[in-house]
Amino acid sequence: MTWEPERLDDQHHLTEGDPGGMLVAVAASAAQVRIAYRAAVEAGVDRLISRVRPRAIVVVGMGGSAIAGDILAAVCGNGAPMPIVTLRSHQLPGWVGATDLVIAVSCSGRTEETLSAAMEAVRRGCSLLAVGSPDSPLEAIARQASAVYVAVSATGQARANIWLLTIPLIVSAASLGLVKADEELYERVARTLEDIAHRCRPSSESFVNPGKTLAMALAESVPMIWGSSSVAAVAGYRLACQLNTNAKYPAIYGELPETGHNQVAAFDGPMAERDIFADAATRTLRLVMLRDVEEDPRVARRREATVRLANARDVPVTELSAEGTHPLERIASLIGLGDYATTYLALGYGVDPTPVSAITELKARISE
Q1: Tens digits of residue pLDDT in 121-170
Q2: N or C: which terminus of the chain has fewer CB atoms within 10 Å of its end residue's CB?
Q3: Same topology for domains 5-19+203-348 and 24-187, yes or no?
Q4: What is the pTM of this model?
Q5: How far apart are CA 275 and CA 269, in angstroms?
Q6: Distance CA 36, CA 328 (A)
Q7: What fold is seen in the domain 24-187?
Q8: d(Cα 186, Cα 192) in Å, to the nearest integer?
Q9: Region 196-200: what's the mean pLDDT?
Q10: pLDDT for position 123
Q11: What residues does each domain of the chain span?
Q12: What is the predicted pLDDT for the residue at 209?
């Protein structure tokens, strides 16, 4: 597979190289926000208010479904009066009990690990909220436990339905008073994603298309993606995962200030060396810094110093800034751009962004 940037402006290639319609799925993000909000309201997530305020919220899920929990925690922020934990496993921690709320998220409603954790939550007497496909095993568990179930009709890969799976969690958090969010906010988020879709549309040429521009910056590099706040860090993790699954591309993820105590040392290593006279291009580090307006001043200073350090060592740097006032808007602005960029990166390499054959094969081998 070779990187051919001219593919990004070849409309025939963008259509033929994406038979699963990942670009179309990303463009539908705004619609997902609106659909998911209505689904959550109609499912009655406000029923959570009538129950005792939970001691903790545990979101269980895997892959593209689990990141909904990470987004929930980032949007609620450090001011949340209870821990919000995302669990990617079959089993609940021993401390989870009847005073806790477990939110099970599975795009298909059939994810083995999520079903196991949801059933365990019911056995322990936890409050349960579930989000997933209608008429699925997860819905059966929720209905049997008289739990709230938000049915969302997703198509394609779970990672392409992130907002269908995430918005019901934000609505539930708002019903519990953990975050200020109303219908007007969800509409602003949808408009943010619509704006990104317009600017990153396939027919928009590379020199004015931020999604294609970011893809070209990431190509032939080893991205080190760092976030400078909880919002930026979750968006950075999402970008790394999308690079893995869409572009089948490696990426390193981290969060400031922790990365300043370990990953920054790679600036002095062999992957940071560039030979401008080499006959063939070599893959070197690229620092991708995701910024947020709500940075801790101490983290902001570390971010600025880190960028100067990278520049001094000739490590290329790409800085992306979150846009918007509400944390949900800001995280959507970063995730929306990253979803487009990773899809364009795949297409620039001639890779179909939708299938994940290695994951499918691994699941098949486990089930043997």
Answers
A1: 999 999 999 999 999 999 999 999 999 999 999 888 889 999 999 999 99
A2: C
A3: yes
A4: 0.95
A5: 14
A6: 14
A7: Rossmann fold (3.40.50)
A8: 10
A9: 98
A10: 97
A11: 5-19+203-348, 24-187
A12: 98
Q: How far is CA 115 from the centre of its chain?
A: 21
How would residue 280 be classed by pLDDT, with cut points 50, 70 and 90? very low
| Residue whose token pair is 């979150």 | 322
Residue 105 has pLDDT above 90, yes or no: yes
First to last CA, the chain: 31
Instruction: Report phi then psi at 101, rounded to 5.
Output: -105, 125
Long-range contacts of 153-157 (CB under 8 A, 24+ apart): 154/107, 154/108, 155/25, 156/20, 156/21, 156/22, 156/25, 156/354, 157/20, 157/22, 157/25, 157/64, 157/107, 157/245, 157/354, 157/356
Output the six-digit token pair for 322: 């979150």
Distances (CA, A) of 357 to 191, 332, 354, 362: 34, 28, 10, 8
- For residue 277, the number of C-alpha atoms closer than 13 Å in the C-beta half-sphere is 0
Fold observed for domain 5-19+203-348: Rossmann fold (3.40.50)
How many Å apart are CA 200 and CA 27, to the nearest integer? Answer: 9
| Residue 216 neighbours by CB under 8 Å, 6+ apart | 5, 8, 206, 348
Tokens of 32: 């997902």
Q: How far is CA 285 from CA 28, 108, 221, 318, in A?
A: 32, 36, 6, 11
